[in-house]
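BACKBONE GEOMETRY TOKENS
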Amino acid sequence: MTTSFAPLTVAIGDLVPHPANVRSNSPETYDPENIAHLKASIAVLGLLQPLLVQKLDGKYAVLAGGRRHAALKELIADKTSKGFTAKTKVDCRLVPDDCDVTTALSLAENITQAPMNAIDEFEAFARMMEVDGQTPETIAKTFGTTVAAVKGRLRYGLIHPDIRAAARGKVITLDTMKAFAEHPSQEAQREVFEALTKDGGYLQAYTVRQALKSRGVQVSDDIGAFVREDYEARGGAVAADLLDKHSVLEDAALVETILLEKLGAAAEDARMRLGFAWADAMVRYDYATMADYGRVYPGPIEPDEPAQKRIDEITAELEKLQLEMEDEGLEDGAYNALYERVDALEEEARDLQEAYSAEDLARSGVIASWQGGQITLHVGLVRPEDTVKEEGARGSSANPTGEEAPDPGEITYPSSLAEDLKTERAMALGAAMALHPEATLDVTLFKLVSDVLASGMSVTQAIKIEARKEYRSHAKMDEIDETSLEQVAAAHDVLDLSWLDDTRAPADQFAAFRALKAGEKAKLVAYATASTTQSCFARDRQRDSLMHAFEIEIMPDIRAHWTPNAALFNRFKKAWLLKILGEDLGLAQEAVTLASSSKKEIVAFCDKLFAEPFATLTDAQRAAVAAWCPPMMQTAGVAFDEAEPAAETPEPDSEVAQAA
């Protein structure tokens, strides 16, 4: 690349830095300790690689070779060095003034000399596109990298300049800076950045990502991909990213509206097809809420003549298919196709021999929810008010296949037997695991933490341990108390993730995982479990005695992890706040005084009170402030189903109520 540029010699004193050099914003690159080895090499061997220079204002500006230039200046300043003065001439190559590849030359030269930081590379690539008219494809070709890698660097241009400046100044880490790139809107980034740093807190990538989740839905998210077409058709705003998969559907409310509409349509279709009485939809199926619902099941029926004819046809086809599946030379694709056909036929036969009773259909329904990236139907649900308490179980599944016994001496494997054999093998495997507890513990914990912490597919489908991070939505995510988020982030920071390397095979990762100390494994499991907990209030000791007792043991006081703040108090009515102050906290006089104030003033008072209890409080008042939280949130306090409903207004005969 440089052979077409005219050679010349230039005095070291006539050399100046070139403003287009991509390291111009990284002065630490030229610190003496960073070029000491280069200085020593030049002192002994001389300048082996000519500098690329361009004539600027009567001087020769070093376009590529800035570190060598810095080393030469160090040699001039070093009185012990021999043969280097400002008048010493060195070999250079002159780049014409009208050359349109100056940035490319600078970047290519620097990459061959020493690695630049990511922000330098972004600024260089961006300048190549803006000044030289380059494309990601031509840049990738020039530097022998991939288009995706170039676009990955160019995505840093989507990050607000203030945030990039903070990363360059080492106020935040590069990893934290990159977390902001997950939302293409610089305005959203700036708002989150200012909100998270307003109190001088230390920013972490985890908290940044959590805060940005409330600002929209990525199109690569399964929900984003599902609703995108309808979302854009309705004019929903899209924050575009250089890589489309990182683009964000900014109107989260519209996303949820469209999703619920689609879920509702699927539920209604199932209701009409199956004859249920009602249909409903929910984004996430809340198992805690649905625990009060009943469920009905189809029972055996006597098929009519057409149905029986079809069952006989299915039985004959199943026997034929099972014979075909016994062919040991069958390829996997063909075998899987036969297996899917068998499943479909067995389901059809089951539907012909089972049905919901008219009574059950009249009181039950279907709910559609979003699970595992697809619509899931929950059928036969009975609302609490429609539940009929009956003795005994309703319905039972009939054998749908009508399979005949095989001929004597002939071994066949009908699907029902195949399924039973799978069960027996699983039981045998379970017994072996029970006899080798240490190995089983390791593989169980390994799968559990890998499913949460690693990216990509599950390491194995052989054991059913499902661990996925729980999606937590919140209308005011950027305003909530961050104590628990900080505690979880701190727990993540001390995890030993040396075993977690996507470039290694799962077996190699497992070996490294098993070598961890027991305490490190426990931390990993605790973090993984913490990431999967579902949103709920205090556990019902009758329905879930294990978690009820466990939560009391590990979290006797939620206030160690959470503090009420303005975001909470803003959602309370003025009368509720006065009642809390006067009755729960024992601050009756303060409540009377504040009764004539605006709600905004009362919220501010409560926010300050809980942030740092006032010195004027009595011991009893201080203890009440330190312990207070909504009763359904406290694990060791009043259970949710035992708590009295929140009053709309204080009691009429109380001093607080009279003042209000």
